[in-house]
Amino acid sequence: MDDLSAAGLAAAASAALIQAMASDVWLNVKDHAARILGRDEAGSVANLDQVLEDARDRVLTASPERRDEASALEGARWEGRLQARLEEDPGVAISIRDLITMVHAAGERVDKSTTVQQNVTAGRDSYTAGRDLTVGRPERAP
User: Fold this and answer.
1) Residue 61 · residue 77 · CB < 8 Å
2) What is the per-residue pLDDT across 82-140, written as a single tens digit (0 to 9) for each?
3) Which of 9, 72, 96, 129 is least surrounded, with the fewest CB atoms within 10 Å of its CB?
4) Rounded to the nearest 5°, which phi and psi values hold at 47?
């Protein structure tokens, strides 16, 4: 597996891991991630299980205005660990893809929301929308 593929897979897996932290699938995802990162060695898996739980606590106990920052920080940490694991053993990519699939298969049970901050400066009208938007100007009287 080339570095770019490993980086992309690690990024997707860490995003799925962070997403799962606030969902009903967390326990299954956490167990799967601990086995991947712990190389299925009992002591390592148990240790990583606790490390993952601590990461989840940091994300969920962050104040609402700091939650995105906490999620990004934890996501970066896990992305690095996953990428290192892929470099060590490219065959683990199958298990990492399974982890991503597990989170995506949870469907609506996993929060798919995202936060977007927009700063708009306009000399005239300005419109923004997260989905569909229809804009019209009222007819002006002569």
Assistant:
1) no
2) 999 999 999 999 999 999 999 988 764 444 455 556 666 766 766 666 556 566 666 76
3) 129
4) -65, -45
Q: How far apart are CA 71 and CA 74, in angstroms?
A: 5
- Whole-model pTM: value is 0.70
Complete DSSP assignment for the chain:
--HHHHHHHHHHHHHHHHHHTTSTTHHHHHHHHHHHHTTT-HHHHHHHHHHHHHHHHHHHHS-GGGHHHHHHHHHHHHHHHHHHHHHH-GGGHHHHHHHHHHHHHTGGGS------------SS-----SS-----PPPPP-
Rounded Cα gap, residues 39 and 81, in angstroms: 12
